[in-house]
Automatic annotation (TrEMBL):
Protein name, as recorded: ABC transporter substrate-binding protein
Organism: Phyllobacterium myrsinacearum
Example GO BP: cellular response to iron ion
Xref: InterPro entries: ABC_Transporter_SBP, ABC_transptr_periplasmic_BD
Pfam families assigned to the protein according to its UniProt record, in alphabetical order: Peripla_BP_2
Fe/B12 periplasmic-binding domain residues: 48-298
Length: 298
């Protein structure tokens, strides 16, 4: 199905699309009514790509050729969660709304399987090509998503180049020893990661033992401060993304948390390195590995 296309006077919309977002709602209604007249889509390579999700934003920014990617989500410009925030200014920023994406007239829309679901559904009904990426739970998932993105954008060679550099960096990190320390991942709101998580794989690749996995936890779960203290991890990795005090980090200010550190400094892993999986996630592995060597045995 070929996507409904706007009349010529609307086709120049890119960075300046915001002026017409209100009009886009009316166009959406008209376009949906005309879907029955749309014919089969052409298989030509995408020339206008829009990403609506932080994770697909960053993969596309790493892989797209010049001018191919026209818009990324507004989160791509947030340095607390985006490794490539400094590059986001080169693209129009979107908020994942169907009318704004429609007005950009993309050949390909990128998003996650868990976000912007309503927008993705509308755009599909309008005949736009929407590709949804599952979140990465391992470095194998990162490889799969990078290769898939490279294939979608016609940038397979660039994808392999990025993965080669990532794998070389991983190979330089020391393997786990028999007496590897146990690290507790402790995020905002007392959340930790166990098996089948990207953070858990990061810990394993760093040559450490994930306390969440050791406790039999699967996925991302809450871990009370009492449980953390009783588990007696060798190291604790956390990150406070807020410059001012926040309720989400109350546990990290509690005396029991300080006691759990047993005189060690918490390992600071910025969220941007593993909130999304990408070649840059190897930086989280390096930070953990280096911190474990620096802190040394108890």
């Amino acid at each position: 199905m070929r996507p409904y296309r706007l009349p010529g006077e609307f086709l120049g919309v890119s960075r300046g699309y915001r002026w017409a977002v209100g009009a886009g709602v009316a166009w959406l209604a008209s376009a949906i009514a005309l879907l029955g007249a749309a014919d089969s889509a052409s298989a030509e390579a995408p020339a206008r790509v829009v990403s609506m999700n932080l994770c697909t934003d960053q993969l596309a920014m790493l892989l797209a050729s010049g001018g191919q990617l026209v818009s990324v989500s507004y989160l791509a410009g947030d340095a607390t969660v985006s490794v490539l925030a400094g590059d986001a200014g080169a693209f129009a920023l979107n908020h994942g709304q169907a009318e704004e994406i429609f007005l950009m007239q993309p050949d390909l829309v990128l998003t996650s399987t868990y976000t912007t679901r309503a927008t993705a559904g509308i755009l599909k009904r309008l005949g736009f090509r929407v590709e949804e990426f599952p979140p990465e739970a391992s470095f194998d998932d990162i490889r799969a998503n990078v290769r898939r993105m490279g294939a979608l954008l016609g940038r397979q060679a660039r994808a392999e180049e990025l993965l080669g550099a990532m794998d070389a960096a991983l190979a330089d990190i020391p393997a786990r020893s028999a007496d590897a320390p146990t690290v507790a991942l402790y995020y905002a709101n007392q959340i930790t990661s166990g098996r089948n998580t990207l953070a858990g794989d990061v810990v394993n690749r760093a040559g450490l033992v994930n306390m969440g996995e050791k406790l039999g936890l699967d996925g991302t779960q809450k871990l009370s401060l009492e449980q953390l203290v009783m588990a007696k991890p060798d190291l604790i990795a956390t990150h406070n993304a807020y410059p001012a005090p926040a309720l989400a980090y109350d546990a990290q200010l509690h005396p029991a948390f300080r006691a759990a550190l047993q005189g060690k400094n918490p390992i600071d892993i910025p969220d941007k390195y593993w909130i999304c999986g990408g070649p840059f996630t190897v930086e989280a592995v390096k930070l953990l590995s280096d911190a474990a060597r620096r802190e040394g045995p108890r």
